[in-house]
Amino acid sequence: MENLKELGWLDFNGKITADGLHILASLLGGLPLVHQGKWREAFVPMVSKLVRVCVDLAVIKDHQVLLKWRKDEFWEGWEMPGGSLGPGESWEDASNRLAEEEFGLKVRFGQRLGAYNNTDNLRAHDLTVLLLCEPISEPREGRWFQGRPPDIISVHQKYWPAVRPYLRD
Question: Considering only CA atoms, which of 122, 130, 47, 37 is closest in space to residue 77?
Fold first, then answer.
C-alpha cells in the first residue's frame, strides 16, 4: 500500500488518485473477457464494485432439470450453472457457451424465465436472467432432478417457482 502511495496512485487516506485510476483502467483493459486463469484473484474484488449481469440455465428434458454440484468458498450444493453475460452476447449465444463450459452440452435456447436481483449473492451483487434451454446432446456431467433437491444453493432457491411448471415436481 505504501508503494502505491509513493507512486502517487493512492492519496494519504488510501483513496485512488486520478493517476491511479488511469493505471487501473489500463490494466483492466488488458484483461481477457472471462474470469479464468491468472486474474481470478482480481475477479471478486472487481465485481464487488458493480452489479454484473449473469445468465443461469434451466436445462429441462423429460420434465427434469439438469443441475451441477458446486463446492467452493461461496457455496456447497446443487446449482443451475451459469456465468457472466459476455459483451455483445445474445441470450442464445450465452446459453450455448455456458452449457458447453458447464456440462459439455449443446442446447437449444427456449425463453427467458425471469430476472433476479441477487443482493443475497455471497460473492457479489448481480442481476441474473434465468434461461430455459433444451439439451440437444448428452451432458458429460451433472444430474437430472424431477423436483427441487433440498441442498440447492441458497441463491438459486428463488428460481424454483419459474422452473417447477416444467417438472414432475
Answer: 122
Instruction: Quote the cell numbers at residue 88.
Output: 455483445
Beta-strand runs (E) in the chain: 52-61, 64-71, 76-79, 82-84, 107-118, 126-135, 143-145
The answer to whether residues 73 and 43 touch, using CB atoms and an 8 Å cutoff, is no
The reported pTM is 0.75
- Measured in Å, how far apart are the chain's first and last C-alpha atoms? 54
* 129-169 pLDDT, tens digit each: 999 999 999 999 999 999 999 999 999 999 999 999 999 86
Where are the alpha helices (H) located in 7-150, listed in sequence order?
18-29, 40-47, 91-103
